[in-house]
Amino acid sequence: MLAYDRLKRLFRNRLIRNKITLVYVPLIIIPLFVLGFASNHIYTNAIVEKTVKNVSDNSSLIITQINGILANATSTANMLTLNLNKVLVEDYAEAGGQMSELQLYTKMTNQLSYALVVFRDVESAAFVDPDNRVYGSNTSMENNQELVAGSELLHRLQQSNGAVIWFPMQKRSFLVNDAEQPVLTLGKRIVNINTGVPLGYLFLNVRESALSAVYEDIGSIKEGSYFIADAEGQVVSSQHAEEVLQPITEQALLQWVKGSAPGGRVQTSRDGDRLLISSDMDGLGWKLISQVPYDLLTEDTRKITLLILLIGLVCFVMALFVARLLSNVISKPIVQLSRHMKRVKEGNLDQQIEVVSGDEIGLLASGFNTMMGRVKELLANISAEQRKKREYELALMQAQIKPHFLYNTLDVIYTLSEMGRARDVQRTTKALADFYRAALSQGKDQIRLEEEMRSVMDYLSIQRIRYSDVFDFEIEIEPEVLHCMIPKLTVQPLVENAIYHGLKNKASFGRLVITARREDRKVVLTVKDDGAGISEERLHAIKASMNDPQQQVGYGLSSVHERLKLYFGETYGIQIESKIGLGTTVTAELPYLAEQER
Fold first, then answer.
1. pLDDT for 69-115, tens place per residue?
2. How far is 416 from 428, CA to CA, in rounded Å?
3. For the chain: N or C, fewer Cβ within 10 A?
């Protein structure tokens, strides 16, 4: 005890640089061990990352080759569409409509066989005419013809619009060369390219072995393996034939495959003693899965890791002792200051440090408190300025909507007057006046939903006169939301987009449905059309522009989205869902605020 007191007094009386030297002597060794451990960790990660990259590159090659096979099948279908038209339309017409069954059969099978010579990735082909007569690239394809008429494959093609349809990998006893071999089948309805009259149905088969041969040739890494699974966890193609068309038996692997987020190109996971790597295959909803044994990747580093852990344990004990000394002598006020700075880094600006000394640490604390006060003041000013700027921008965007509609409506009135349709001119002029009366709203920014829908009805009345042969509309509004407050000109831009970018571009008569309903404390507005739809690339660009005002894509949608966020907060706005040929649905969410609640 006496010796300890003597050492304690000796330590207190030394200069601070001597104290630091005495405290940090044990820590000289620690960086060496940390460096060793970090090197081992980095080396292990580098091996895993390199493996993931190599497998990903291999997966890209495999997917590219498989996509090439599928593209060749599509090209075969397109080529046969023209060639079969020539046989069934032109050649038949040249023969004066008097072609024998043998001649027709020979010409049809020759065309199918020739296509398989050009595109060798397609294993077999068959054509089924409207009388369910089967013409095969070989006689095996014509077996069990009686099963074709009632098959799901033929039924789906009969309901299709002529686009290519890929049927799931399967085994069947008709329209195949070998009933025991799983095949991926492409189907296409063949129509007269001049008249559109159906001529029959084309079926092209790609054998599963053609797909598995691709990744067998490319191979994997360190005894790994590849297989292809669909979204439901069924094996579509595998290096092991007995696994094909069977569900994944391992529950953990099955759940990982099903739970993989769509749209992610490459995803990795550590599953026990193996590394799993998943790559999405566009078009068919498949995933290419690679399994690499994890132990084989890290076997060279396990012994080093064990040694480093033992050394690290010793260093940890020493570090605790030294840290205790430093916190009592030097670092305690610095640690307190760093904690406050960390909270600031995390976004909590309400930090004030108690100044208990006049030394360098006290000066730092005082300066920190002054700085935080100025930062909060500056942030408040910037936030106010940004909000005001955004209000000006949105006011300008809203003002630009009105002349655009006015020009179009005046053009309609002029056209109607030239046609002598005086009654329609009166109705259109009245609807235009009512629309602008609602749009102006006595200068108010927010109006009741009932007033907004009245304005939309006036707008649709005008557009219905202009496009009477293009679309019809339906409005379904729950009565309880009619008194909800909404920024004016929220629904009209969505309706305008649906008409000009969806329904006008549709080849047939379309329908527009507007609904409004209440969900708890929210009002959900939906504008749905069955028009031409939006391409995936265009849809992605529109969604990106709504999150980044600098990207001007989808002007009206961006305006509505930004105004809803400005008035009600970041949790509100619009969402867009669309499919080419099926239409577009735009959903706007805003809080339920009755007029008296404002």
1. 889 999 999 999 888 888 888 877 777 767 788 888 888 899 888 88
2. 9
3. N
For residue 165, with 0-12 CB atoms within 10 Å meaning exposed, 13-18 middle and 19 or more buried, which class applies? middle
Model pLDDT for residues 334-344, shown as the tens digit of each residue: 666 667 677 76
**Torsion over CA: 207, 209, 215, 217 (sign):** negative
Query: What average pLDDT does the structure give for the chain?
Result: 78
Contact in structure between 204 and 122 (CB atoms under 8 Å): yes
pLDDT in tens, 246-257: 888 888 778 877
Q: In which band, very low, low, confident or very high, does the pLDDT at 583 lie, cut at 50, 70 and 90? A: very high
Q: What are the tokens at 572? A: 């509100």
Residues 573 and 561: beta-carbon distance below 8 Å: yes
Tell me how many degrees the CA angle 510-515-520 measures, rounded to the nearest 5.
155
pLDDT digits (tens, 9 = 90+) for 198-245: 889 999 999 988 888 887 767 555 455 788 888 888 888 888 888 888
Using an 8 Å Cβ cutoff, are 452 and 590 in contact? Answer: no
Q: How far apart are CA 531 and CA 20, in angstroms?
A: 76
**Nearest one of 429, 358, 250, 301 to 40, comparing CA atoms:** 301
Rounded to whole angstroms, the Cα distance separating 153 from 186 reads 10
pLDDT of residue 528: 95
pTM metric for this prediction: 0.47
CA distance 385 to 449: 30
Beta strand extents in 145-285 (DSSP E only) = 165-170, 183-191, 198-207, 225-229, 235-238, 266-271, 274-281
Q: Is the dihedral of CA 465, 469, 470, 475 positive or negative?
A: positive
Tell me how crowded residue 197 is: count the other CB atoms within 10 A of its CB. Answer: 10
Say which residue the tokens 């219905």 belong to: 464
554 burial type by CB count under 10 A (0-12 exposed, 13-18 middle, 19+ buried): buried
CA distances from 130 to 126, 189, 235, 516 (A): 13, 11, 35, 46
Q: What DSSP designation does 419 have? A: T
| Nearby residues of 29 by Cβ (< 8 Å), 6 or more positions away | 315
Residue range 451-497, pLDDT digits in tens: 888 888 888 888 887 788 889 999 999 999 999 988 888 888 889 88
Radius of gyration of the chain (CA): 36
Beta strand spans in 70-175 (E): 124-128, 134-136, 165-170
Lookup: tokens for 566: 């400005």
Exposed e or buried b for every residue in 1-38, given b needs 16+ CB within 10 A? Answer: eeeeeeeeeeeeeeeeeebeeebeeeeeebeebeeebe
Q: What whole-number distance in Å separates Cα of residue 577 and Cα of residue 591?
A: 21
Report residue 275 as tokens.
């590394």
